[in-house]
Amino acid sequence: MTKSSAPIRLAVIDSDTGFVRVLAKRVEAMSWQLRALDAPVPPHELVAMRLNAVVVDVSMLGQRAWEYIEAIGEGIPGLGLIVCSVQSTVAQRVRGLRLGADDWVSKPCHPEEVIARVEAVVRRRKRAEARVDRGPLVVGELEIRVDQFQAFVGGHNLDLTRREFELLRLLAESPAQVLQREEIYQRVWGYAMAHGDRSVDVFVRKLRQKLEATSPGWRYIHTHFGIGYRFQPETDRSVERPGEVAAEEPAASSTDAEEATPNGTGAGIASRA
Asked: Is residue 36 one of the residues assigned to a domain?
């Protein structure tokens, strides 16, 4: 934290008094504002605390852990969420990150590591908030409001989840560029995409459904099979571009896989107009 930066407002939800005590000493030395909570509180109470970040030990939550992570991750877009636990599997960590956690720390851990991770999360959030001053992004019938983490068509809210909004904003801020799935995943989810993961395709499909329901006369997101996606508003659904061939999008399978690389080439590119 630089001298000119405002102190970070952090809440720690953890019943491990030893861990909280050690962390509190270090945080206080940095002039941060700390709220130590020995039990989970409803997400709306976290909103009232006007926090920058929260560290949560999921072992306190039991079966409610995933629901709580998702409620914070999706319901409080501006709040950084760092999850910690004594024991966790790769599957649990991946699930937590996909539900909205910004980071996951395994105990025992050094307080300096926790502080560094909190700083990194808050730094990323502030960079995103800095873009709010540019005003809404208007493309086609679509108005993207970064300050509200939402998008609108004719005043109608698309009711996007936090992840859907981050995906839409990334694509819209890179108009006419083909973004590879791996790049999209890294920039939206925040970590490397595992082999065979179809999360990007699934979220693009959900986002398209919401866009098509509110703005049926436009097509915004185009598929480049075997590569990724391109954002370019178009009103003519039959338009074809040089180097592209029109193709029907394959139906989603039971695994929600939306696209597949064309047999043998991997170079076929199709625009979903």
From this structure: yes
